[in-house]
Records
---
Amino acid sequence: MPEWATISIRGELVEEIKGLLKRSGRYRSISEFVAESIRLRLEELARKGELVPEPPKMARPTSSVPVTPVSLTAPQITRNTRGYINVQLQRAEQIWWVLVRLFGDLAHKDTKVDAQLARELRNCRTMINFVASHTCPECDIELANERLPDLQRSLERVKRDLVATAICVCDDYAKDWMIELDRAERGELGEIPPSGPRFIPGLPRNNTISWTRITLSKPVPKERVEEISRVLGVTVKAENSLHFVVRGEKKTVKKAVEMLYQLQ
């Protein structure tokens, strides 16, 4: 996730910026206006030559000691890497859950919200399930490592747009949600988001969700069933020891059914 810093701006300037946002409609938030203003000012100073140039780098002294070439081979995926991905995935899921609740609350307040954000939230849920399904010890962790940045960027885009919409409702309203998002980004969210797809009020219906009922030839360990449900992000409901209902994304439902049959 991008790093953020807090800066202090005089109150009268903030009020002028708010007025500009309402009049122009070009900027979605105060932070977006401030960021662009700073960038443009830096470019102006650079054109005028007023920026202090960086000191020249000192040339390395020659040495008769042979230099060992650095290997360009990608580092091996370790347990620490897997642990890092799991931590980031947990935080991403908490951020997603706060954004889903914010989206639903804005819709409940009859606030105009871009429908594209609903689709992006569903795509984020799909990416969360994908990354989670590739973090088990037997899975290809490199795929999870590749998709994790995409997930984080998508969540950041949705967060930016939803917070900008919340600011238009009320400053205090947006502040409360930003505090909740900060807690989620630190992994301190008290409420644990649900694992697997579920109905979310205010979001359009998703035709990629499916369910199926299967019958096994013999009982399977409950712990393994729960592990499949958690890893693939699907819901596995046991009607009895041999009959199960699997619900979730079509592709993950098919994979879950295959794994359940393999447990027999």
---
Amino acid sequence: MEHRHVFTVSELNSTARIALEQEVGKVWVQGEVADLSQAPSGHLYFTLKDENSQISAVRFKSRTSLLAPISIESGTVVLAQGTLTVYEPRGRYQFIVSILQPIGAGAIQLAFERLKRKLHDEGLFSPETKVPLPEMPSAIGIITSSKGAALRDVYSVLERRWPHVRLFLFPSAVQGEAAPTELREALDRAIRFSQTTHPLDVLILTRGGGSADDLIAFNDESLARDLFACPIPTISAVGHEIDFSICDLVADQRAPTPSAAAELAVPDRVETLGIVASICHRFVRQTRVIWKGRFDEFRLRANACMLRSPQRRFETYEQRLDLSLTAALRNMSALWRDRQSAADHWSEILRLSDPSLPLHRGYSLTVRQGDTRPIQSVSDLKAGDPIETHLSDGLLLSHIEEVVPHES
């Protein structure tokens, strides 16, 4: 009878482990992390998987790793280096990981967190360094793409809330490899423009939403440091409400959307008109109180002098009263001039923001019939559309015969 070697289970698992470790050795594996758990010992147990297969994996706490355990989550796609082996007590085929490196979105998030910790430790996010925004800016700079939806949103909100403010665009790419450099150059142009040509009260850095790859330009360290050093109060509005960038943390104010940035930058003219009216009413009430107090004082002193004092004493009090009334009138006159100047100033601002004002200078305003929004582009109309043309002394109703855009 032929002699056959019979393995015990332990011998078989040991043989399989040695064969795998010697034949395969250290390898790199790409896969998605799943079923992640951390033992009390600090060891990480998880599964690496792709579309068709999966393998159990472990990373021991004592192993050297390029990534802190907290930076790995289920769903992260990683590149792992390790040794293929068999866990002998259970005969389990597993992968012992030495190095973990997230790829794709995981790598972007890791770089973001590292830079965030670095700049936070240096004090670039400190509330003490934030500059308050001016209450009523007269000139605003905007850094964004000249073709993006963010620019249209900002223009629309500013025109509605504070139409007399002057806007200056400093165009730049907002995504792609060249975006960080272009954004820094646009920021530098805005600062030099404010210092040499026209002072800017606020600077808005913005773009619309996008993926983590699209927004990565606003996580550039050099751009963040330039923004921190900017002498103009800044608002950062990058992406949507759930998106956060390094620029959002460095800027003086962070807005969740481009439209919200415009609302932060300027007051609402309707609310401002209400404040002016309230100030005027309060001034009138205060003036009445002052006049009544002075008159009551005069009557009281005059009666006292006439009843108890000789003629000379009456004349002395009369002179004092004249001096008091003169001083009071002079003070009230100065106060009235100051309040009247303020009221005239805001009235002029509100008058200039009246959209019908240009009609008295020979201009016209054209809207689609039944609409109130002015037509700004031929692309808003087509042949046959009814339109209304508003003049200073009346209204013209007509239809579009043909739409002829200008050549570029």
---
Amino acid sequence: MNRLLLSFLTALFMSTPSVAQLTVYVSPTGSDSNSGTIDHPYLSVSKAYSVVAAGDTIFVRGGTYSLSNTISLSNKSGADSTHRCYIFAYPGEHPVFDFSAQASSDGIKLNGNYLYVKGLESSYAAHNGIAVNGSYNIVENCSIHDNRNTGLQLGNGASYNRMINCDSYYNYDPPTGGNADGFAPKLDVGTGNYFYGCRSWQNSDDGWDGYLRPSDSVTTTIENCWSFMNGYLKDGSPITTGNGNGFKMGGGDNSNGDSLRHEMTLKDCLSFDNRVKGFDQNNNRGSMTLLNCTAYRNGTYNFSIPGKRRVDETVTLENCISLGSSGVTLLAPLVLATNSWMSPFTISNADFISLDTTGVRGPRKPDGSLPDIPFMHLAQGSQFINAGTDVGLPFNGTAPDLGAFESVYDLAVGESQWIPNLFELKQNYPNPFNPSTTITFSVQADGPATLSIYNLAGQRIAELFHGTARHNLLYKFVFDARRLTSGTYFCVLSSNGYRSVRKMVLMK
């Protein structure tokens, strides 16, 4: 690493004035007349939120909170990407919000911007378990279940929110069950919302629903997410009043006569055993991109994109797998490459280690990521290993595998020939660039890693990666800077105590 550059960045970040931050505590045994300290906690999140400012933290102690009113989190003056309001479960504890006594409205409402909610459970709300109406919020490691409408819904122009490692299940809206989805970036939702590592199961309507009214031309990205058994009740019985799809990618009223577009991208997603369809167009008129997605044993179709789109919109399916009798229905024109139903492939059960779904609802790993189970992973020697098209996602071997799970069988042989085993942030290419550039990195050992972009003022303007990185994968990202002005930017990689910085120049 360039020592002068590192010294410059260190001085730059250290020069930012520090501001004393407040930490308050909430407990089921607390009182809102208390001082909010760990020894004298508040009883309610609402009280705690009324005393904090941007940059402060609320720790919620474990236990059950029986509530009849919505927890409404409004905007805080001065909030930005470096001054969020944090509402976190106390480390090692599990707070449960039970809204059974609620007569109407949502359980938790994120009406503000730059909120970070982590480790909470929201259940039995009269409407949505969590409603995200603001922008640039993060919802992580939350469990949302048994609510009387959708588990987590984004609306009211909500944009650029991130939902990470959340579970949404058993949501049912009485009396018919026709509207309760697991996750719903829908209706009047804004753009740029992102889901990663989330699971959605046994919701009465859909796992994910991107149906629009009146929003148009909004983007949503769903990555490394599982959706299964939607359209079935908690006891396993089917419910025909719900749509029962895994990922419903868009649509609108009256067969979408308004030609509303939900620009939907799905990467490394798994959809199985849903009552009707695995991946469903639902008369979406926008672009749909499905990369390395796996569908298995859905009721009618695994992949269903049979309808018209606007002439300037594209549909892309690459490196996808469809297994079972439900099949695929697609309407040209399409961009197709190396999917399991295309020549020269002939798929069979033998291509997979296991088709046993045991563990799909199991506990997450300590970092909140999805459990490691053999279900739908490729068997050694499968025709789909190293048989895909490079679509910009990290992969092992000479080419990507097909499907949602990248195999590691080749790691024992010739690893040093193609698998990096070192901490390295490569120089972006091209550099200078306009408007996009490719950034590649690897890490020396498995562990948490972040890849961020900073401007000359030391402000983080983008976070390209935040999660657990594996030492045997090469990570590649395309950074799109079309909304930024010309100038110098810095790409910073941090992992396991190591740090590397690369200088990038945007020239427009």
---
Amino acid sequence: MILRKIKCILWHIYLISEFFLVSAAIRIFSADPVLRRKRLLKNNTRISKRFIHAFNIKLTINHSENLQKLKDIPYLAVSNHTTYLDIILLSAVENFVFITSVEMRKNPFLGRITKSGGCLYTNRKRYISLPAEIEKFASAIHQGFKVVLFPEGTSTNGITVQPFRRSLFQVAIEAKCPILPVCIKYKAIDGKKIDKKNRDLIYWYGDMPFLTHYLKIIGHSLEAQIDILTIIPYQEGKTRQELANQVYGQILSSYLEQESSVDKQSNSLSMVLK
């Protein structure tokens, strides 16, 4: 077990180093900011697929046909959020731009990762900057990017989906774009269902130290599921509160559905990313 963990840690160090080197080269040789971000996102997807193997994650994607419907259309994706692994999983299936906090940018290590990954930043404590942020995020969608919002405001303990902050749903209104609700669920660790005893190995929340949590999860095997939910097309006159409620209802329903109800989705298109 110890040797396997050491091997996994070395693999992770190699992938992280490669990620930083490639992103640094992209920033040096890409003068155009839009092209630079596109290349950074492609690097995210490439390295995230390899991280799924490094984390030993079996990922199932349900209703992947909804992704295909929006393949060539920029949009706002909205997801629940329990851990940094969410970003790896989503990046592995699409070239997403993530909205994250300025606090994350200030972190010496995670800040460098978010910058190298082409993230957008929001200051959740400084409401006066909100209109400018909404304009910036909507502009990214107009430039052709698919932007991800985690409206719970922070990662959670996985018990349920916390109420959504509605302010940044204004981005979809300003961009006049569709919204794609996404639900991420972690199903098992080392073949055992997620419960109170093992959930903190996966979920990263509160004041948990990042490095300690990261090192604990390395060497385990995980099963995760992404449900691509019903697309919400742009509709003139809808308020951000209405959009937040509609998206929250979809994600909460998907997150809380019982294991036995998964079989009824036999008409959905699924894929497994190993």
